[in-house]
Design a protein that fits this description.
Blueprint (H helix, E strand, L loop, with lengths): L3 E2 L2 E5 L2 E4 L9 E6 L5 E10 L2 E6 L12 E8 L1 E4 L7 E3 L15 E4 L10 E2 L4 E3 L3 H4 L4 E2 L6 E4 L4 H11 L1 E2 L6 E10 L1 H14 L5 E7 L4 H20 L4 E7 L1 H14 L13 H9 L3 E3 L5 E10 L7 H9 L2 E4 L2 H5 L12 E2 L15 H25 L6 H18 L9 H12 L12 H7 L5
Helix pairs in contact: 2-3, 4-5, 6-7, 9-10, 9-11, 10-11
Length: 458
């Protein structure tokens, strides 16, 4: 029977100080019972001798210091897990909000899991098809990878996230593939968009959806991604599934972390974020990967909005250090109505070479990828020259590269949110565009592949 305390000393915003406690531990869950019988939940943030500082999950309004009681439950926040989670929608605390019954738990798991031990990691090496050409063809996602999407305020990262969640698959093993989608600090309209989209397209059947609204408490925002990762670990390592985890928006998570840190009067780090932001993000991101001797895997796509489109801001900066690349959305492409507006030149997947080639995608993938990058970069330079000097100053080959760059953005990158391209369709489209250039310009492709795949002249 948990011991009850009537020793609440102080309540300041979302924080509460309880004195003369015994055996209370960090992250332990607690309950506050008000004089009218209402029960609210809290979590231990700090223990100093016999004093415990707790954070409320609900409002502090109405808490009477003398008549309210606190009891600590002896365990931290847990998620009830089961194979029946697929197809369900939960709030940020793991409670069903889709009108269905509560989950009959096969297990209850502490959400504060640990990063995968580097010695136990298996190297990511298998291609995941997202159906988005700019990712599959040029910045390939590999099973077990962490590949963030860097967006900006007002850019359509929510549409891209929903598209990837709908279309992603491990080729040849689609039956054993699941998506865990965590929406962190979003508006009600965005939540309704995700839920409606997943139900309408049938993607909900293989998805576990966690929704935390902007109106929910900050402490819940901190728990939501951990809930999602706990569900993913269960499906991957207990049910042997290949799980894609999509977290949007990590910026809202970091803002909640800063809010809690400020309430605790901690010394701030860069731009007011806590000094442990790097450690906190790494502890989350590094829960993704493959484990030696286990069939399942966790692949992660964290999505974040860069404040003022600044890549040097602490959140994208630290995320870039921890993860294996980044997909960057461009405001310039969005203005040109390129959908999705993925800027392929600064984007990078550090593990793409491990997931492509014969037996994984196609033998010409690496060659065409390198040639498309090089040709698009040269085309962009030609367009800049055209802007400065005029079209008459360009050579004939420069004009072909400029036309290639326009066609590449219009046909290859801009595919819309409803088009699902196989990797073969993506590679064939790449060859069609390379057909705009003379064979002599394809210096990054082996001659035998040019003979086999270069489009025949009409």
């Amino acid at each position: 029977m948990p011991r009850e305390y009537r020793t609440i000393q102080e309540v300041a915003g979302p924080l509460m100080l309880v004195q003369n406690v015994e055996g209370v531990t960090y992250n332990e869950l607690g309950e506050i019972e008000l004089s009218n019988g209402e029960v609210r939940r809290c979590k231990v943030l700090e223990v100093n001798g016999s004093n415990a500082l707790v954070q409320l999950f609900d409002s502090s309004a109405g808490i009477n210091l003398s008549s309210s009681k606190v009891r600590f439950l002896g365990h931290s926040l847990e998620l009830a897990v089961s194979g029946d989670m697929l197809g369900r929608v939960f709030d940020g605390m793991g409670n069903p909000i889709d009108g269905g019954p509560a989950i009959i738990a096969e297990d209850r798991i502490d959400i504060n899991g640990l990063p995968i031990n580097p010695a136990a990691r298996n190297y990511p090496s298998e291609f995941i098809q997202t159906g988005v050409s700019a990712i599959d063809g040029l910045n390939t996602l590999v099973r077990g990878q962490k590949l963030p999407i860097f967006s900006g305020s007002g850019l359509p990262h929510a549409d891209l996230a929903a598209q990837i969640a709908r279309q992603a698959k491990v080729r040849g093993n689609d039956q054993n593939f699941a998506v865990v989608f965590a929406a962190i600090g979003i508006t009600f309209e965005e939540a309704d968009f995700f839920i409606t989209d997943f139900i309408k397209t049938g993607a909900i059947d293989r998805t576990v959806l966690f929704v935390n609204l902007a109106s929910d408490p900050a402490i819940e925002r901190i728990s939501t991604p951990r809930m999602a990762l706990t569900a993913a670990e269960y499906l991957a390592f207990e049910k042997n599934m290949h799980v894609l985890v999509i977290l949007t928006d990590i910026t809202n998570y970091a803002e909640a972390l800063r809010e809690v840190s400020a309430a605790r009067k901690e010394v701030p780090g860069r731009r007011g974020y806590p000094g442990y932001l790097y450690t906190d993000l790494a502890g989350m991101y590094e829960r993704a990967g493959r484990v030696l001797g286990r069939e399942g895997s966790i692949t992660m796509i964290p999505i974040l909005t860069m404040p003022e489109d600044d890549k040097t801001h602490p959140i994208p900066d630290l995320t870039g250090y921890i993860t294996e690349g980044q997909i960057i959305l461009s405001r310039e492409l969005y203005r040109k109505n390129v959908i999705p507006p993925i800027d392929v030149l600064p984007s990078l997947s550090r593990l793409k070479d491990k997931g492509i080639g014969e037996g994984k995608t196609r033998e010409d993938h690496a060659n065409t990828m390198n040639q498309l990058f090089a040709s698009y970069a040269r085309g962009k330079e030609s367009k800049e020259l055209m802007t400065i000097l005029g079209e008459a100053a360009l050579t004939e080959i420069d004009k072909k590269y400029a036309a290639f760059a326009d066609a590449f953005e219009r046909e290859y990158v801009s595919q819309g949110y409803e088009t699902d391209r196989s990797i073969e369709q993506t590679l064939d489209l790449g060859w069609k565009l390379l057909g705009m250039l003379p064979k002599s310009e394809l210096k990054r492709i082996k001659p035998e592949m040019i003979e086999q795949y270069y489009p025949a002249e009409d």
